């Protein structure tokens, strides 16, 4: 057997293994990592508003429109999740092809194939649109400049196009990392083509102009302006820290904003922009520098699997046999940029991982490594161990979600209420039911969907137009000694609600609040 035949068979082994692995995960109780994906899926499928909506805020309008159209004809299929799985597979497939086209020793190729498979499986266990877009950008940029892979260039363009459509900011970050790597390590830009570069830029410009044109023509400008101002406060690192530490008095409207409850508070866009300026002043104190570092370590401590992946990336980067000055320059300035960015922005584990996935650009460019064959074999065993632990934790977490869904269904069947139901402390991604246009979401959410035309539509199909006009509501929460905030929020915007009844299960509590008929506001 020739070397090329062996390489082709090894690549085929990993590609088939990747496909089968993702296929198996599809039929497992995977969940989205954040509520953002869940809400966007519910919007485009019609599960939240009763009819598929062509606009989902974060992803590109052409993609959300396509989702809404397909869901209109085939509502029972999870097209949103299936697309994320598809982009995940395409990205990992391209990276595997890149790995098996490099002149690495075979054991290193197997190590990196397993590493990519781990990332792909993690993104399938817990899909998240920011990570899916960044993964697509990484794969696309790896392959698009590789002169040895011309047959896969079209797929690389597709990956980049989908990445830009899913979340352009992720593609911008990965592209910035590639650009910096190409400046420091000249080998990274081997095969660079101005024509292909201009085509990529045209993709980005075309999508950006299309998004702007669509939003100006079909989306409420009041909602767009408010949502942008809202994010500048709710995603501000100082505001998040103040909320977590209880530094905001409960007499302030901002106390409720910290829990994403602002639908009908007397706060407008100007109030949020003024609050942002106030928060920015705290960033220029020395204390804020330490707070940023502490926040960084806290985030990674709760994202241990991503921290493990980042650790392997660092180890591999330092083990490459290339100039020490180049490595110091690249990593020093990239880390500096990362820390400054972290200081002024709230970075979570998914963004932190994207920041360090760019280390693969130089790592996969230099075949010589300080890591011995024996140590590489040991690292492969370690990766397999991590995969086993991660899979075990996934099933354990999924079992808890299935139990939660059973409790929730039982409580709703016992209470059998038709009045509005809200959640507090219960994340939308916990629900294992596949809601769609024919099986609608039985509760209402708040957050970035607040004050949007989509939220108004959700209210209308449930028989009311605003929270203020409600005479009663239900609230689902986990049993906890901590006081609930949503009832106080409702009494802030529409006083007179009192607890009428409560229903408890093993871990949940369903509270029924009714507005007292004898209550009358003061003069």
TrEMBL record:
Keywords: Membrane, Transmembrane, Transmembrane helix. Signal peptide: none annotated. The chain crosses the membrane at residues 12-32, 53-74, 80-100, 112-145, 165-186, 198-214, 332-363, 375-395. It comes from the Bacteria. This is Glycosyltransferase RgtA/B/C/D-like domain-containing protein. It comes from Algoriphagus formosus. The lineage of its organism: Bacteria, Pseudomonadati, Bacteroidota, Cytophagia, Cytophagales.
